[in-house]
Amino acid sequence: MLTLTENATSAVKNLASQIPTDTGGLRISEATAPDSGYALSLAPAPEQGDTVVENDGARVFVDEATTIALDDRVLDARVAEDGSVGFALAQQV
Question: pTM for the complete prediction?
Answer without folding.
Answer: 0.90
